[in-house]
Automatic annotation (TrEMBL), chain B:
Annotated Pfam families: BPD_transp_1 (PF00528), BPD_transp_1_N (PF19300)
Places the protein is found: Cell membrane
Keywords: Cell membrane, Membrane, Transmembrane, Transmembrane helix, Transport
Top-level taxon: Bacteria
Protein name: Peptide/nickel transport system permease protein
CDD domains xrefs: TM_PBP2
Organism: Sulfitobacter undariae
Taxon lineage: Bacteria, Pseudomonadati, Pseudomonadota, Alphaproteobacteria, Rhodobacterales
Protein family per UniProt: Belongs to the binding-protein-dependent transport system permease family.
Amino acid sequence: MSGHLKNSTLPILALTLGLGAFAANADTIRVGMQQEPTSLDPTTDATASIDSMLTMNVFESLTVVAENGEVKPNLATSWDVSEDGLTYTFQLASGVKFHDGSDFDAEDVLFSFNRAMAEDSVNPSKGIFKPIEKITAIDPQTVEIKLTNKDAFFLFNMGQGDSSIVAAETADTNNTNPIGTGPFKLDSWTRGDKLTLVKNTDYRDADAVALDKVEFRFISDAAAATAAMMAEELDAFPGFPAPELLPQFEADPRFRVNIGSTEGEVILAMNNAKPPFDNIEVRRAVSTAINREEIIEGAMYGQAVPIGSFYPPHGTAYVDLTGAYPHDTEKAKEMFTEAGVAGTTMTLRVPPFPYAMRSAEIIQAELSAAGIDAKVENVEWGFWLEEVYKKKNYDMTIIAHTSPNDMGNFARGPDYFYGYDDEKFTALWDAIRTEADPAKRDDLLKEGQQYLSDQAVHGFLFQMPLLGVFRTGVEGYWASSPVLYMPLKGVSNAG
Amino acid sequence: MGYFLIRRTVGFVLTLLAVSVVVFAVMNVLPGDPALTILGLDATEDALDALREQLGLNQPLLTRYFLWIWNAVQGDFGISHSFRVPVSTLIGERLPMTISLAVAGMFFTLIIALTLGIGAAARHRKFGDWGVMLISQLGIAIPAFWLSILLVMLFAVKLRWLPPGGFAGWSDPVAAMRSLILPTISLALVQSAVLARVTRSSALEVMRQDFVRTARASGLSRRRVLWRHVLPNALVPIVTIVGMQFAALVTGTIVIENVFYLPGLGRLIFQSIANRDLPTVQALVMLFAAIVVTANFIVDLLYVVIDPRLKARA
């Protein structure tokens, strides 16, 4: 029996020896994704990987946000805004076709937005459509949108995956067979394994698209992701999950490592509605007790930029407030004693993300040095959403807020999990979101950052970096990401 | 025998019914809102409500349980909350992967364990025996995921003989087999370590019996006695462990499929629990339970085949 086995294993071994990894094709790119999508429709599911794979690649929106955060024309080639800032008239691109061959026109815009605003809508960002009062098709190439109140982020929001333009005939099946107008169309999707896009040769700017084929592979485990890159089974891992594994790629001439910025502010959230965090002095003491450098070193292996308020360092209105509460354990201890909470126990409920779990351990030690007995509870994501986010059943937690322009979180009132209810900030946010002049808006945003830092609403930790590993020869990926998508239009692979 | 089959079938149904109550209760008591998981942190209250309505989560718990059971009996396991396709489609897509992996894992486990176990028994208290005991002790101590990573580092990254993960699909059988080699070895090595030790001690037990000495005395070679007389008589404990191990192999694929990013059931259940995809988790747990109960049933049948004396008791 054992002799028989030997005979049958030899040919298999010989085959494995003979067939090495196939060589990369210049028109093709193999991209690793950590998060696996369960649906392919960005208008009904918030999973970030749907946006990073499909938004602006398969689906397009009226506008598009460029790498520097600027809003540019897309399916809308131009627009006019009325004097009062309430009426937007969009001119639509002509001759655009959906991937199933049907024509794109004003009716599709109406359908997409009415679907997103409908009573039974399950759009994950339904709120961005709230200012819309009425949409009218003036003619097949012109759409007029009336707002009830001014919205400074309206054009930016029209360039998100949530506001993708879809066709009435295919909207219900986009979750498995996405049909958009973008430069790439779906070739195949094997759930749990890979998703392949091919170039849309009918795309209005097809000459600008270098790649013929894009193959996404879903690898959640960081060690497996590293092995797949090292074995050259992948050409790019644009959202690499583990900062601790980057040095080996940096040392290897076959790879290029990119460390950019995202819109994700990582905060040590405190439940402002609940003692002791309803006391501003306690919150300030926490801010004084934490040491951002130490947290970034330990949790992100040094690969992140510290923040002192709730605004990304790459933004035009950024103010550096990281010095507002200089780290001082002794001072923090005094502040805790004065507030009468020294020696008490506080719970830190942490979602299952490496950045959060590692930060929590360091923060626990820092708080303990300042006389607070912080207990870390690592919880699972579903539990976190239910208990921390929905029921506000927590003292402190650590979370990254990945959406752009999300300072408005602090104006979401007492029902939001911050438990922060401040009329003054809500009024300020109202001014920010209705200010059409960019320079004036930036001034208000600076004021907002200053105010939130002054109120020490949360412990502001660091900006989530965008870590990417690419084989040399892969060019054109965004270095930083002001939105959740990663356009492939300008990406090339020299092989 | 007829009575035995009826008793086992009733037991099978009752076990699955008990599992269905437990899994339904646990999944619904567990904190977590499927709608919130799908729509994320920016979702508005009315969108969440609309989705809950769509998913049928606004119905009372008992109604949902009986609806689920009623439909499941008719072969309808519902629509996955997060994938929005029928759960049976999802399982159908992934079952071949996991079954291939578990069967291949079992096959190699048996070959490695029986060869090493019987070999060690034959060389009792000699170098070969100690060697097998040492290696199997290591095998028990090493976690499967760690072994997998080591194998990938060596065979995929360093030597480039095999892919580091992923499944090429059966349309290309050679590529499919290549992608199954490392996961199968990772599964089989750890499992066979346990089984080799059981085989060894069971064989040693039998070797002390008088009939073995008689067989040797009648002129049969050592090898012939081992494989023809010792092994068949040592099988009952081995088969018991194999039955338990098959269940462990099926659940072991959860870890292996994540490390080798294979699109199988293990990865699906892992993801579905995180997504609070109740219909998918419920159906998968039921399926795993059915596999385990069936494996035990087959073990019971095998007892009778191996040792006809047990027939009377069955």
